[in-house]
Amino acid sequence: MDASAFRTCAHTGFRVHLTAERLIKVHAVAGVLAILFGGIAALLVLLTRWPAVHLLDPTMYYRALTFHGINMLIFWIIFFEIAILYFAAPIVLGSRVAWPRVGWVGFGLMVAGSLLIDVAVLRGGADVMFTSYVPMQAVHYFYLGWILFAVGALVGVLNFFATLVVARAERTYQGSIPLVTFGALTAAIIAVVTLAHGAIIYIPTWLWSLGIVQNLDAGMYRLLWWGLGHPSQQINVAAMVSVWYLLATLTVGATPVNEKVSRWAFVLYILFINLASAHHLLVDPQVSPAWKIWNTSYGMYLAVLASMIHGMTVPASVEVAQRRHGLSKGLFEWLAKAPWGNPGFAALMLSLVLFGFMGGITGVTFGAEQVNIISHNTLRIPGHFHATVVAGTTLAFMGLTYYVVPLIWRRRIVAPRLATFQVYAFGLGVAVFSAGMTTAGSYAVPRRHWDVQFTGAMFQPPVEAAAFVFLGIMGLGGLLAALGGALYVGLTVASVFFGRRIPDQAGQVPLAAIPSSMRHTPMSGTMVLVLVFLAAFVIYYFLNWKWLAAIWMVQ
User: Fold this and answer.
1) pLDDT tens-digit profile of 159-187?
2) Is 142 helix (H, G, I), strand (E, B) or coil?
3) Quick one: pLDDT at residue 483?
4) Cβ pair 45, 478 in contact under 8 A
5) Residue 342: C-alpha distances to residues 250, 439, 494 (Å)
């Protein structure tokens, strides 16, 4: 190997392949641009959904909603995840990128695809919303953009697999791959399944938009599209959990309490998590009751078990590390004296708590077929996935950014205290936003209609006054989250271009030391938190059955 193609990081000791470093930078920049564009559209959508403002007309609302969903749920997340893959294999394993030129081709395809899609939406050629259900039809280059983006992302994933093979063959590491790389491998495997579904559905849809294929079955489109739509969010879950383990190590020196258990939990994701996509089709008449019950019950619960395992092992690893650092009084000294002023740690814990308590509990509850009937077409569903993808994944990625900039760009964060404020503002804002949205949905406020009051429609279902209170809470939380998002983009860009350069000297970037003691350490505080979580889960789950019984008499 050419030694000049590498540098040694003075802070982590990693042997950094310079091509991998450049690929991380460009993918991260593209991700930040996507969150900027998607965030602007989010503000417009929010100010329309908020009845007190109701900003946009229907056409502009659906256009902004489409633009927001694609940029935030797909472009921001997947660009950042490909950057994680270029970190998890070449840098963590000290290897070279297997196919450097192919990596750049993949990035180019992703950029070209995302530009085609954004241009199509902004020009009014694709007001078809995130799901783009047929028979609604967009301009042909909208679908071509999806194909190019998916192929580009797939190239990045295949480059990750090839780099694992190269690292093994060239013996750049000993033993098994680290847990962070294993988690990234999980995300990559799920990504292959996801992108295959994208190709299967978008290639014929592109041909349909060109007039080459005459008819597409709407039911078959929905079935295959959700093989792309929901699993793309499961890639997020696997990547987010990997980032949790990484942030726990960087911020408090935590190591997995039982690495085998954590690895098996990732395997459960590979085997079962894609079944969760079926809950989008629970009100679809063409799939059988048996298919719905299997895919949203026993199989899916094994993936839920995986998330609950990670939800326990990550805070447990933090508790063990903190106690071994000497913070061992009572149940929660380890938590009370944790580095809450570190934006990376704050993002880790907020992401974990909000994902589990808000996104996880609501997701399992709404995924039950019977409860799904009273929640599916209401604001409860976007309230749920904003708690998972935004409060969970996005917040974790934001926290990681405050390490990526110093370690990869070798620039200091321009305003560290403002970075900490940014994490709290964004986390609190999304939590209030999701809570307001979910509760408003409990009053049957619709999720897809431009006007929650159906003004001027032939049928105007009554909206209870309490719903407007929660829509107002949703609006205020959304504004706070938008402030946090704007600060994230501003701080990241300012730090990359104007942050002071960090010398290549050990200790210049504060990283937590891994405690040397390996003595048995109790996890009693984590056990109490787990019991609180389970109690909240049971209460919310059975409340929903009570509400269901209040609608349809059950005797």
Assistant:
1) 999 999 999 999 999 999 999 999 999 99
2) helix
3) 97
4) no
5) 11, 32, 19
